[in-house]
Protein 1
Amino acid sequence: MKKDKLHIHWYPGHIAKAERQLKEKLSLVDVVIEVRDARLPVSSGYKDIEKLLGNKPRLLLLNKSDLVNPTELKEWIKSLCSITGCDVFSTDAKNNNNLNVIINKSVELAEPRIIALMNKGLLRRPARVMVVGMPNVGKSSVINKLTKSSKTKTGAKAGVTRQQQWVRINPKLELLDTPGIIPTRQDDQNQAMKLAFVNSVSENAYSPEPVAQALLDTLSMGNYKTVVESYYKTNILNLENIALSRNWIIKSGSPDTERTAKYILKDFREGKIGKFILDDIKTNPQ
C-alpha cells in the first residue's frame, strides 16, 4: 500500500461563507440546539461556539447515541454538563427518547427573551429555535423528529428569506426548518481526522486508505483493541493483512487496500465493529 501521509484538505472560502450564513440565521432565533456526534463528543463540536452564539441559550444533543457504549455516554453527558453549563441529552434516529424534554427545555430557555420583548410592548409569541451542527452529525434527523407530529408551516417571518420556513411544534415553540451548518476549521488535523472517521468531512478532502489505517490505529488503543481484533479475526490491524484475510487481491497479486479501507470505514460508521467513543474524556473534557 502506498504510505500516504494523512492530511485533510480544507476550503477556507467555504468556511467564511458558511459562518456568514449561520450568523444570519442565528439572529432570527431565541435558542440553539447544537447537535454533535456521540462518537465524538468534543471533536464534532465547534471550538468557538460560545463566541459564535454570544449570550444565546444552547441545548446540546449527542446524536447517534445507539452507536456508542451507553455507560461511557453517561459519563460524557455528566462531564459536558459540568464544563459547558448546558443541558445535555442523547438522541438517535431509532427512538423519540427525550423528545418532550428537549421541546420543553427549549421553551424554558427562550422565556427570558420572550419576557424581554413583551416588556418592550410586543405581544407574546412562540419561542424560536434552530438546530445547528457540523456536517453529517444528524441535524436533519433531529429536525424531522421534532416536526414529525406537526407539519404546519407558519411561513416566512420578517427578515427571513422565502426559503426559510418555520414549523409550529406546539403553541409555544417554532422551529426553523433548515439546519445551520457549523463549518469545520482547517487548523486541527487531529480533529479533522476524527471527523473523517464519522463521515463529517467530504470524501473529496481525503484518501480513504490513510484515514482507514488511522482509524484502525485509533481503535487499537485502549479497551477497544480486542473488540476490533475479534471483528476482523486478526491481531495485526493493518489494511494489507485485513485485505489478505478476505482474499481481496488486485490483478498484480497485491492486497486491495483501497477496497479494504472503504469497507473498514463503512463498518465503523454503521456500528458493525462495535460501540465506540473516540474522544478521550480524560484529555478532552469539554
Note: The chain has ten helices and eight strands.
Protein 2
Amino acid sequence: MFFKRIREDIQAVKDRDPAARNSLEIFFLYPGVKAIRMHRRAHFFYRHKMFFLARLVSQRAVRKTGIEIHPGATIGRRLVIDHGTGVVIGETAEIGDDVLIYQGVTLGGTGKDVGKRHPTIGNNVMISSGAKVLGPFKVGNNVRIAAGAVVLEEVPDGATVVGVPARVVRLNGEKIKPLDQIHIPDPISQELCRLEGEIYKLNKEIKELKEGK
C-alpha cells in the first residue's frame, strides 16, 4: 500500500505539472510530495495517540518543505501540492481525492468554532495560490477556487468561486448572473401598482353597472 501510494503521488504530479521531467526528480526534489509522504507518517502516529512523535515528524516537514500539515488532518489519494511554500492545513481539515493545491493556501479555522474547526474539501478540487478556506463547512466536488479568494461558507458541487468574501461565479460551467444591487425591483411599489390596477377595474365595473340601471 505504501509503495502504491507513492507511485500514485508521483503519477499525479506528472499528470498536472508540465515541468515534471521524471519520477526520481519528483520523489527526491518536489517539496509537495515530500510533505505528503511525511504527513502520512505523522498521521499514523497521531491516530495511535503518539502525539509527540506526530508533531516531531510534522515540524521536520515544515522545516524541510515550508508546508505545514497538522498530523490530525485527513488527506485523500493523489493530492498534489504545487510549489507549496506557505501552505497551511489545520488539524480537523479533510481533503478528498485528486485535489490540487497551490502555494500560500490555508485550510484553516476562524477561531470561533470548537471540535470540527476546519473545512472538508471534496474530490477533484483546485485551490489556487493564496486562497483561504476558513471554517468547518464543506467544499463540494469539482470546485475551482480562484487565487486570493477567501471562502467562508459552503460551496456547491461544480462551482467556481472568486473574491473576498468568495462568491459563486460559475456553476457546472454556466455563468451565474450577478445580482444588480442598484436596480432591484421594489416589491412594495409593484404591489401598489397591482392594487391600483385592481381599483381601476372595480371602478370601471361599478360605472358600467350604474349606467346599465
Note: The two ends are 95 Å apart (CA to CA).
